[in-house]
Automatic annotation (TrEMBL):
<feature type="transmembrane region" description="Helical">
    <location>
        <begin position="55"/>
        <end position="75"/>
    </location>
</feature>
<keyword id="KW-0449">Lipoprotein</keyword>
<feature type="transmembrane region" description="Helical">
    <location>
        <begin position="20"/>
        <end position="43"/>
    </location>
</feature>
<keyword id="KW-0472">Membrane</keyword>
<dbReference type="InterPro" id="IPR039859">
    <property type="entry name" value="PFA4/ZDH16/20/ERF2-like"/>
</dbReference>
<dbReference type="Pfam" id="PF01529">
    <property type="entry name" value="DHHC"/>
</dbReference>
<dbReference type="GO" id="GO:0006612">
    <property type="term" value="P:protein targeting to membrane"/>
</dbReference>
<dbReference type="GO" id="GO:0005783">
    <property type="term" value="C:endoplasmic reticulum"/>
</dbReference>
<dbReference type="GO" id="GO:0005794">
    <property type="term" value="C:Golgi apparatus"/>
</dbReference>
<keyword id="KW-1133">Transmembrane helix</keyword>
<feature type="compositionally biased region" description="Basic and acidic residues">
    <location>
        <begin position="218"/>
        <end position="233"/>
    </location>
</feature>
<keyword id="KW-0564">Palmitate</keyword>
<keyword id="KW-0012">Acyltransferase</keyword>
<dbReference type="InterPro" id="IPR001594">
    <property type="entry name" value="Palmitoyltrfase_DHHC"/>
</dbReference>
<feature type="compositionally biased region" description="Basic residues">
    <location>
        <begin position="234"/>
        <end position="248"/>
    </location>
</feature>
<protein>
    <recommendedName>
        <fullName>Palmitoyltransferase</fullName>
        <ecNumber>2.3.1.225</ecNumber>
    </recommendedName>
</protein>
<keyword id="KW-0808">Transferase</keyword>
Length: 248
């Protein structure tokens, strides 16, 4: 949830934040248009007759009032989208610490064994939690009929104060998560935001470089995995140059 807006009559959330930005943006444009039209007509009427139409004067006042209000809402909403934060999260974004549960890869579960030489630097939690019988008399029956469930181990990691795990690295990428990936998505209220798509098995929302760094520091991801491809290309170039020198 971002906030409750009485002007749209409901909650502005991940499924409607894009439409809210478009609503206040187009309302600002409409108020600007109405202000210009009323101002021109009022100026012409005053020049010709020396009188002022009270209805047009009220239109000028309302256009200014709602134009300034919606323009401010547009700026604040776009700023939040650029940070990939909600209004509530923005209140303490400079000091907030996020606690994340990141699934430990299957090939690393053996390292979590107490007899292993590898010492993890993080706490872990296993889901689903083991079921507990209601009383001691039902322990035998509980163990007999307890269904076998696959358990997953998660590493509990924390960000530094002020870090946002959902910041994708650039303001443009963050805006794309809210407004969409094409110009038509930005202008037309037809599709939901990409951030409303929770089909990913890794996280309900897209994760940014902060999470990659935390995983690398905890040993859950190789820190040089991203740079392996450029280094391979550089090594191939060096080999080609050395072969060329040998032939020459």
């Amino acid at each position: 949830m971002d906030h409750f807006c009485p002007w749209v009559g409901g909650v502005v959330s991940e499924t409607s934040f894009k439409f809210f930005i478009q609503f206040v943006s187009y309302t600002t444009v409409f108020c600007t248009f109405a202000l210009i039209v009323c101002a021109i007509f009022t100026a012409e009427l005053r020049r010709e007759t020396g009188e002022v139409n009270p209805h047009w004067a009220v239109g000028i006042g309302l256009s200014c009032l709602f134009g300034v209000f919606t323009f401010g809402m547009t700026l604040s909403s776009v700023q939040l989208a650029m940070y990939n934060l909600t209004t509530i999260e923005n209140l303490n974004r400079r000091s907030a610490v996020w606690t994340l549960a990141i699934r430990v890869p299957g090939h690393m579960l053996s390292k979590l064994n107490p007899n292993s030489r590898w010492a993890p630097t993080f706490r872990t939690i296993t889901y689903p939690l083991p079921l507990r019988p209601p009383n001691a008399e039902d322990i035998a029956e509980h163990q007999q009929y307890q269904p076998a469930r696959e358990q997953h181990v998660f590493a509990v990691l924390q960000t530094l104060p002020g870090e946002n795990p959902f910041d994708l690295g650039t303001s443009f990428k963050n805006l794309q998560q809210v407004l969409g990936y094409s110009l038509f998505d930005w202008l037309l209220p037809l599709k939901h935001s990409p951030c409303a798509d929770h089909s990913s098995l890794e996280s309900a929302f897209a994760l940014g470089p902060v999470v990659k760094r935390l995983k690398a520091e905890a040993g859950l991801e190789h820190p040089m995995a991203e740079d392996s491809e450029p280094r391979d290309r550089a090594s191939k170039r060096k080999r080609r140059r050395s072969k060329h020198k040998q032939h020459s």
